[in-house]
């Protein structure tokens, strides 16, 4: 399976491309913003596609040509304004979904926020609410398609070393999870067709990634 990783130069994206390249059943194409970011992925033996997520749908669709799945891991980051949140986390995500349709790619994995229900928007701190709202509408857009989607809702992200042990489900108590473990969950999701049409939250736990994903 060839996988287009959108937001590959992010921290989750880098872990994911590394894991994919180590997996004999998977192959990565890293979608990056500029050519200067390519060397990391080329050293892993991964293909690269230089595309501005704030560009048009056709350019994203071209990057997706010939792949079997798309993973959206892009994010505007915590230090950007509402404008970037709209352009990346909302518009960028929706354009990637539409690009999947254009390119004929059915499998789509969306990395969302821990809780994107309407109540979560209303209860979020003022500075975080635009991000949750953006993820809410991007998730809704994806649910309304006929793509073979999975939506993953990770808890608070850390740069701790992954343990390979998580808890997966819904209505979980908020917790943290290393970005490395999120990448492992994405890898397992791509290999498990039972996750199609599902969404789930993940935090650190005591269950192996593969077993946790099989149980959702």
From TrEMBL:
One Pfam family named in its UniProt record: NAD_binding_10
InterPro entries named among the record's database cross-references: NAD(P)-bd_dom, NAD(P)-bd_dom_sf
Domain NAD(P)-binding: 7-192
Coiled-coil portions: none
Family annotation (SUPFAM superfamilies): NAD(P)-binding Rossmann-fold domains (SSF51735)
Domain of life: Bacteria
Name of the protein in question: NAD(P)H-binding
UniProt organism field: Ornithinibacillus halophilus
């Amino acid at each position: 399976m060839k996988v287009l990783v959108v937001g590959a130069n992010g921290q989750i994206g880098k872990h994911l491309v590394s894991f994919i390249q180590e997996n004999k059943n998977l192959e990565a194409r890293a979608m990056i913003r500029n050519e200067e970011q390519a060397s990391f992925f080329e050293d892993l033996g991964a293909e690269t596609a230089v595309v501005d997520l704030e560009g048009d749908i056709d350019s994203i669709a071209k990057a997706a040509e010939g792949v079997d799945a798309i993973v959206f891991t892009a994010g505007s980051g915590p230090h950007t304004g509402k404008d970037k949140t709209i352009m990346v986390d909302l518009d960028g995500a929706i354009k990637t979904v539409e690009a999947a349709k254009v390119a004929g790619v059915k499998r789509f994995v969306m990395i969302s926020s821990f809780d994107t229900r309407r109540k979560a928007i209303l209860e979020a701190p003022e500075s975080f609410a635009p991000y949750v709202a953006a993820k809410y509408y991007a998730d809704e857009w994806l649910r309304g398609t006929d793509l073979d989607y999975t939506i993953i809702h990770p808890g608070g992200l850390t740069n701790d070393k992954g343990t390979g042990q998580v808890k997966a489900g819904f209505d979980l108590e908020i917790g943290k999870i290393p970005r490395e473990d999120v990448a492992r969950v994405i890898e397992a999701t791509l290999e498990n067709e039972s996750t199609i049409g599902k969404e789930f939250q993940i935090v650190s736990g005591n269950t192996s990634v593969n077993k946790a994903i099989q149980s959702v």
